[in-house]
Amino acid sequence: MFETPEEITAAGEVGRLPSGPSGLGTSAARVADAIRPGATPPPAGDSGGCLRVRVPYRPQAVRMGGPISPGYAERQWGDGSYSPLYLPMTARIDDDLARAVDDRLVAWAERVGIYADRLEAFHATGFGRLATLAHPDTDDVDLLLLGAQVNAAWWASDDYYADESDLGASPTKLPPRLALVMSAMDAPPPAGKYTAQLDEALRADPVLVALNSATAHLRRHATPSQVMRICNTTSQMYVSWTAYAAWRHLKELPPVWRYLAARQHDSFYTSMTLIDIVGGYQLDANLFYEPRVHRAVMQAGTAAVIVNDLHSVEKEAADDLPDCNVVLLIAEEEGCSLQEAIETAVSMHNDFVRGFEASQRELAGLPSAELQRFLHGAQAWMAGGFEWHSSTDRYK
Fold first, then answer.
1. Each residue of 171-191: pLDDT tens digit?
2. Among 237, 214, 228, 238, which Cα is nearest to 288's?
3. Region Disordered: what ranges (predicted)?
4. How confident is the model over 84-113, as pLDDT tens digits?
5. Which terminus of the chain is less hemmed in, N or C, by CB atoms within 10 Å?
């Protein structure tokens, strides 16, 4: 089935065998009872014959190469004239590491063909920097490159299919284009001559080449469960995109509640599904999808995407046919000024972050080091995403 000619193993990208579950990951089955609603972990020191309760994962604040949890604070943003955003503190800023990832990312983008005439602007956007800010528990350039590639491919599909008309984006063409995305990431079974026709179509579209290439890199580092987590979450995200396309085509503004219902499944939750893969470990699927864990990561992802709406509102307000943006929708629905709508969105963001913080405390007693590391990873992602949005030129 279709893969890019270089199969990701170009210079600077070291091939690796999938690591499989880490030693800590094998504990997931033993905490099955503990994650059931209402269950109480056994007392410390009581193995119950088979369950050994470990000390919860408690990260130390270090600059690189280890898990980080620097705490929460109110942080100024924009020109400083609005209420602060309640956020985790940024765990790591390493410009040299970011530059190394970005350089490799641009070389990859040139090979797969995305942003062919915009590589300088693509480099300045800094998806490699985003990866280093959002994943501070590793300094492995290849793993960080993986995170940058997958995110860049997602953003490319947004630009080429949904948002940028000068790149060919069209609301009426979006749904059939998205239908091919999953074939690029998760190949269907062979269908004779029709498979050859599919492969030809996949090779002709740089976005699909990028998604296929990034997924091939993903498979070298991730377990099958983690790969399918990424594929399924990507598909879930694209369902929301079809709603945005319909609203844009019909020139309709959805009510805020409906936009949020779609946006919560099209948030940086999608990016956060990479946390353990980039970190080099595995959070067991039964823990990742446990309802309280799922709620926590959704809270973090939605908070992070509201940051995106806040930073992009000025640019989007200037469009003749703007994208859906929570600030613009609040202003329209409430009949208030843009400044008042921004304050409402800031308050909503802060509520989501505090909700995640409460969820993190609630889950702190579960005896899974991988889970605690993953939750700290979501915390770090919120901080890193904020730092990136504050510095990238993409939304200016």
1. 889 999 999 999 999 999 999
2. 228
3. 1-27
4. 999 999 999 999 999 999 999 999 999 999
5. C
Q: How far is Cα 293 from Cα 112, in angstroms, rounded to an integer?
A: 36
> What tokens were used for 281?
């470990």
- Angle ∠(177,157,114) on CA atoms, nearest 5: 110
Residue 128 φ then ψ, to 5° = -65, -40
- Binned at pLDDT 50, 70 and 90, residue 142 comes out as very high
Whether 300 and 269 have beta carbons less than 8 Å apart is answered as yes
N-terminal to C-terminal alpha carbon distance within the chain = 40
Are the C-beta atoms of 255 and 54 separated by less than 8 Å?
no
| CA dist., res. 280 & res. 274, Å (int) | 10
Residue-range domains of the chain with CATH: 24-30+59-391 (1.10.600.10)
In one letter, which amino acid is 43? P
Residues 6+ apart with CB under 8 A from 306: 326, 345, 348, 349, 352
Cα Rg of the chain, angstroms: 21
Q: Please tell me which residue, 236 or 45, carries the higher pLDDT value.
A: 236
Task: Give the closest residue to 68 by CA, choosing from 132, 137, 135, 129.
Answer: 137
Whether residue 68 contacts residue 136, with contact meaning beta carbons closer than 8 Å, is answered with yes
Taking alpha carbons only, the member of 304, 222, 244 closest to residue 268 is 304
What is the rounded distance in angstroms from the CA atom of residue 326 to the CA atom of residue 7?
39
- Exposed, middle or buried, 188 (CB in 10 Å: 0-12/13-18/19+)? exposed
Instruction: Return d(Cα 218, Cα 147) in angstroms, integer.
Output: 9
